[in-house]
Amino acid sequence: MNEAIDQSLQERNKITLAYIELGNDPVFKKLPVARQQELILAAIKIGKETAHWLQDLYQESDPRKIAQAMKIRVRGDEVKGKKVKSFYDPQKEEIVIYRNVVDGLLRTVDLPGFSENILKIFVALELFKYLEKNKIGVVYKKFELPGFKLGPFESKKNMPGLSLVASYAFIWTLLKLPMTAANFDYLVYVLFTKD
């Protein structure tokens, strides 16, 4: 396949995944399609730019090594009965990856680019959450919309899924993961069956 066409399809797949992620968001669904596209592309841009910034700053694309350079500890743990795969603990300044969940994914996922990078994907996801809270700001809050207004009081509407869209773009860019047809199909399955 022509490289330009392949790159174009990969970008389209990323945008499609973003639509799937945001598809059930009541605020997002009410927006005009042009505004939806604008928000998705802006979130993807933030994710990509953050990945490039980190790569330039640390001359590294392995999120585990970047976390180490940032003095963030990465450790494995076991979990029973929970669906959580990973999390960032700000009190201990550490990323915790549940080994048994990762091991289970390794047994079931056999996709080029993903299987060998599952641990890095989870570390990168949690590293992005850390960066949102401590360096770049929470992505979805950058796109708050006016909500209910009563006198001097005004609420804001937001779309938390935009942070996930940015984190996906961060992961793809940092790890240089291909968005092949097989990877796209698997991610669509994960998004439709997640808890």
Provide a short characterization of the protein structure.
This protein has 8 helices and 5 strands.
What keyword list fits this structure?
two-stranded antiparallel sheet; 8 helices; alpha+beta; 195 residues
Overall description:
- It contains 8 helices and 5 strands; from the N terminus they run ααααβββααββαα.
- It is of the alpha+beta class.
- The protein has a 3-stranded mixed β-sheet with strand order 1-3-2. It has a two-stranded antiparallel ribbon with strand order 4-5.
- The protein has one domain.
- The chain is globular.
- The model has no long low-confidence stretch (mean pLDDT 84).
- 58% of the residues lie in helices and 13% in strands.
- β2 and β3 form a beta hairpin.
- α1 runs antiparallel to α7, α3 crosses α7 and α6 packs across α7.
Gyration radius, to the nearest Å? Answer: 18 Å
Helix content class: 55-70%
Number of helices: 8
**Number of extended strands:** 5
Strand order of the largest sheet: 1-3-2
Output the structural class: alpha+beta
Task: Show unreliable segments.
Answer: none
Sheet-strand content, in percent, reads: 5-15%
H and E string: HHHHEEEHHEEHH
Largest β-sheet summary: 3 strands, mixed
**What would the average pLDDT be, to the nearest integer?**
84
Distance between the termini: 36 Å
- Principal-axis shape equals globular
How many separate domains make up the residues? 1
What is the element layout, followed by pairings?
Blueprint: H1 3-22, H2 26-29, H3 33-58, H4 63-69, E1 73-77, E2 86-89, E3 94-98, H5 99-108, H6 118-136, E4 145-150, E5 153-157, H7 161-175, H8 181-193
Helix pairs in contact: 1-7, 1-8, 3-7, 6-7
